[in-house]
Design goal:
By secondary structure, this protein is mostly beta strands. It has four helices and 29 strands. Strands 21, 22, 23, 24, 25, 26, 27, 28 and 29 form a nine-stranded antiparallel β-sheet that branches. The longest helix has 8 residues.
Length: about 475
């Protein structure tokens, strides 16, 4: 369970906006690529979040909930969707541009694991007074590739109105420090009446690049996207593109953001028409990043009736930039042994001996807690108590890679193989125990090798794997 973090503000300091004592709720059901719609005052009387489901081509909702945030206005508040604390669940970012009686800009983050009912962060942004939302635009992205959504702020009138600049606060530091200040190259002052900005990983390097969309390009005839490279601290461009089949767009009708429609871990350009004339609904259009924003992967009618962008914002959520961590791992590098080695019987009791050279990396087969072992039989070893309650034993290490009591993830290195203890040569002794019962690990290891979910430890046999 995630711990709520309060930095710089108390709930009392934002009384009348934040709801305290909201009941606990389950995590939101949204998935990568869903498109979120935030309204400042829904039927509940609260700020609400609705999301169109990517897996259903945006034809249905994955989320329709009232948040822990009271009614707001888009003249004062702005929103974003991103993973604040790295749990792979989208959180709601709410930026108050006139906090503290109009003296500060503040960020409030509501956890997706509580259906946006519980605040994870209240933070007055450092070195930032109040802001005007006709000059500043706020959104989120992962600038430093740590799988946490940082806060981006674009000042369209920086340097006494001569430049457009981007400022980024780091989520890992609870938005207490900056990751970047940058005046954008080849970009003078911009007007938020015709320009809009978003962040997303355009080129697949896990860092959220800066998308700048000019809705009056080419003398007012076209809409164009310009993408600044995060890996170069936004100092160079990755793309200049006039959008296909898209003339000039009005930002009173169209909303632009990023998402990942085809789940290729690249940020596509998501365009929402808040009042599509052909369908009489809100419509979602997506341009594919892999095609250089040249090909559409979606023209979809949402379940939402037309809305006004004076009370609604739309945000894509690309999802995590890395695959989910594995639930299981082989205890040794895959290349270290052939599959047949994981089927060998033990010489004495349910277990297996895996012959590998001293110094071979040994990995946790699943998440769990480490207990260090060092005796004359096992030598240097580990008992890993898995999250399933079973104990996974490793013996004859030459060294540990983790400390006693450490919590480890599947695939994390926990030691190096050797021949300490009662061993006649370098190898890894591996066993599984449920309670006091030793289990044959061969079927468990073979399933992992084959890339399928292994049988539960308690279902493994107790005979037939030794002689």
């Amino acid at each position: 369970m995630r711990r709520s973090i309060a930095v710089g503000l108390s709930t009392a300091m934002v009384a009348g906006v934040l709801m305290s004592g909201s009941p606990a709720r389950a995590a939101i059901a949204a998935g990568p690529g869903d498109v979120f719609a935030v309204t400042t005052r829904g039927g509940s009387g609260q700020t609400e979040v609705h999301a169109f489901k990517r897996a259903d081509a945006y034809h249905s909702y994955s989320v329709q909930i009232a948040t822990g945030l009271g009614p707001t206005t888009l003249t004062r508040w702005s929103f974003g969707i991103g993973d604040y604390n790295g749990d792979r669940i989208p959180d709601l970012y709410a930026i108050d541009s006139q906090d503290n009686g109009g003296a500060n800009t503040a960020l409030h983050v509501f956890g997706g694991d509580s259906n946006f009912a519980t605040a994870l962060l209240h933070k007055r942004l450092p070195s930032m007074g109040s802001t005007s939302l006709d000059r500043w635009q706020f959104f989120v992205g992962d600038y430093d590739a740590d799988n946490r959504a940082d806060l981006y702020a674009v000042d369209t009138k920086d340097n006494a109105g001569a430049n457009t600049a981007v400022h980024i606060w780091g989520a890992a530091g609870a938005m207490s420090s900056f990751l970047l200040h940058r005046r954008l190259p080849s970009m003078g002052a911009a007007s938020l009446a015709t320009w809009t900005f978003a962040a997303g990983d355009y080129n697949g390097d896990r860092r959220s690049d800066l998308f700048a969309v000019d809705t009056r390009d080419n003398g007012g005839a076209n809409t164009a996207a310009h993408v600044f490279n995060a890996a170069d601290a936004m100092g160079s461009f990755l793309l200049h593109k006039r959008l296909p089949d898209m003339g000039a767009a009005s930002l009173t009708a169209w909303a632009f953001s990023t998402g990942d429609h085809n789940l290729d871990r690249r940020a596509d350009l998501v365009m929402v028409n808040s009042n599509d004339a052909g369908s009489g609904q809100v419509a979602v259009h997506v341009l594919d990043a892999a095609s250089g924003l040249n090909t559409y992967t979606a023209h979809s009618v949402s379940p939402m009736h037309p809305v006004s962008l004076s009370t609604w914002q739309f945000h894509g959520w690309p999802g995590p930039t890395t695959p989910p961590p594995p639930a299981f791992s082989l205890p040794l590098p895959r290349a270290a042994l052939a599959r047949s080695e994981y089927d060998d019987p033990h010489h004495d009791y349910p277990a297996i001996d895996l012959g590998v050279p001293t110094g071979t990396a040994a990995y946790a087969v699943r998440a769990g807690t480490v207990t260090l072992v060092n005796d004359s039989s096992c030598g240097i070893g580990i008992n890993l108590t898995g999250t399933d309650g079973a104990v996974y034993t490793y013996c004859h290490f030459s060294a540990w890679s983790v400390g006693d009591g450490a919590t480890v993830a599947a695939g994390q290195r926990i030691g190096s193989t050797g021949e300490t203890g009662n061993a006649t040569g370098p190898h890894l002794h591996f066993g599984i125990r449920t309670g006091s019962t030793r289990r044959c690990p061969q079927n468990f290891l073979l399933a992992i090798y084959d890339g399928v979910s292994p049988p539960a430890a308690a279902s493994l046999p107790t005979t037939g794997c030794f002689f």
